[in-house]
Design brief:
Oligomer: single chain
Helix content: 55-70%
Order of helices and strands: HHHHHHHHHHHHHHHHHHHHHHH
Shape: globular
Largest sheet: none
């Protein structure tokens, strides 16, 4: 434990310890781990808490919760934080709420209130600002329209003091407002907070969360962020500016405002540039396909290969079978790439089936851009897909995606949006 091996991800010692505890909570490994929470070494106590949390499973573990309760007053802050997590997730909400009511130390009380999200709305009169703030956020999620003003006032009054013990006050606030659809209020609140030097970083966090959730937010908020940068840009303001710069619409509208600011815009292109696409004639294209099985699942440079063959004349039965599999086997990038090629091969009668295949995946991250690009290559023949493209373009909220970072998720949505805009433009242009 003291060497850190048991808390190193994928280390054999860690895997063995977790397997042993998960297999038998009353076994020697679990008993020893519970004993280590009382070690004289703060590092050992921290790591024991971390391992217990990782091995807690999906059912209550009273012994672990009891050991964690004893450490809520630990002299080491990180031990207290990890103990709070374990109390909530290995014990019960009632036990955690009782501890929250009995303790006075602000760090652990804030941690408990945060971990109890959804269960602390009744603590709006708590003596600690961070707990009151979290309680008001909980209450706001379910509040009626008539209750909004009172809760908004309370949140604004406590935000700055709450930030002393609660990280991410701004993004937490923004997440709730965006989830409620209170877009205009979020913008007004960002303007108010960033105008106050003391609350500016909270406003920056709220702005960033709003940009992550709402497509129009960067265009609205970027000028506010630039206006209140002051002589220096704090890390929070720099992060908000970088996030807003992901939006192509914001950069088109306000790019000149930020050209001289000392911050790093988000990288514009997430795809590798690669080498130039090779050109094929019908003979080399046919040779490539001949070397591939009929049931091929992927084909690099499919547009160039099949395009050369279609330019020269009809596909052979084998080539058509290969293209059919690439087009209809499963939703994928390859399907979006090959659908226009199948339309060239099979003719207009294939169009309804292809559009029914493509339009459901326009907003699917990782492949949606390829479907939009495929529709763009179809030109006016893809006109029946315009309502689906327009619905994607007109979304006010971001498309839910999965990326290691919120900025990355926003970039994926921006990519799908840009591809859909390009596709609609290409189809309309081809329609004359």
């Amino acid at each position: 434990m003291s060497a850190g091996h048991a808390t190193t991800a994928a280390h054999p010692a860690r895997v063995a310890a977790l397997d042993a505890v998960l297999a038998d909570r009353a076994g020697p490994a679990a008993v020893r781990l519970l004993q280590l929470t009382r070690s004289d070494d703060a590092f050992v106590r921290r790591e024991a808490m971390e391992l217990l949390s990782s091995a807690r499973g999906r059912t209550p573990w009273p012994e672990a919760a009891e050991a964690a309760l004893a450490r809520l007053a630990d002299p080491d802050e990180e031990v207290r934080r990890r103990a709070a997590f374990l109390v909530v997730h290995a014990g019960s909400r009632d036990i955690a709420l009782r501890a929250l009511g009995e303790l006075t130390e602000p760090v652990v009380r804030t941690a408990l209130a945060d971990l109890l999200g959804g269960s602390v709305a009744h603590l709006r009169a708590d003596p600690l600002a961070s707990v009151r703030f979290l309680a008001c956020l909980d209450a706001l999620r379910l509040a009626t329209l008539e209750q909004w003003a009172q809760l908004d006032t309370a949140l604004l009054a406590d935000a700055l003091e709450a930030s002393r013990h609660l990280d991410g006050v701004g993004w937490r606030w923004g997440r709730v407002l965006c989830g409620m659809g209170r877009e205009d209020h979020a913008y007004a609140l960002v303007a108010r907070l960033v105008a106050d030097p003391a609350a500016r970083d909270i406003g920056a966090g709220l702005a960033r969360e709003t940009c992550h959730n709402l497509r129009a937010a960067p265009v609205v908020l970027l000028p506010l962020l630039v206006r209140h940068c002051g002589e220096g840009i704090s890390p929070a303001m720099a992060e908000a500016l970088t996030t807003a710069s992901i939006s192509e619409a914001a950069m088109r509208t306000h790019g000149a405002l930020i050209a001289e600011l000392p911050f790093t815009p988000y990288p514009r292109d997430r795809r590798p540039s690669g080498s130039p696409r090779p050109s094929y004639d019908s003979a080399t294209a046919a040779a490539v396909l001949q070397a591939k099985p009929v049931g091929i699942g992927r084909l690099r440079h499919a547009p160039e290969i099949f395009g050369a063959l279609l330019d020269a004349g009809p596909l052979t039965f084998r080539q058509a079978a290969q293209l059919y599999g690439l087009t209809f086997e499963r939703p994928s990038r390859m399907q979006g790439v090959c659908a226009p090629l199948w339309l060239r091969h099979a003719g207009p009668t294939a169009l309804p089936r292809l559009l029914a295949l493509m339009t459901p995946h326009l907003g699917e991250y990782g492949i949606g851009e390829y479907y939009s690009e495929g529709l763009a290559r179809m030109g006016r023949r893809a006109a029946p897909a315009l309502p689906s493209l327009t619905a994607l373009i007109d979304r006010r909220t971001r498309i839910p995606v999965n990326d290691p970072s919120r900025d990355g998720e926003m970039m994926l949505d921006e990519g799908m949006l840009a591809a859909a805009v390009d596709a609609r433009r290409a189809i309309l242009a081809d329609c004359g």
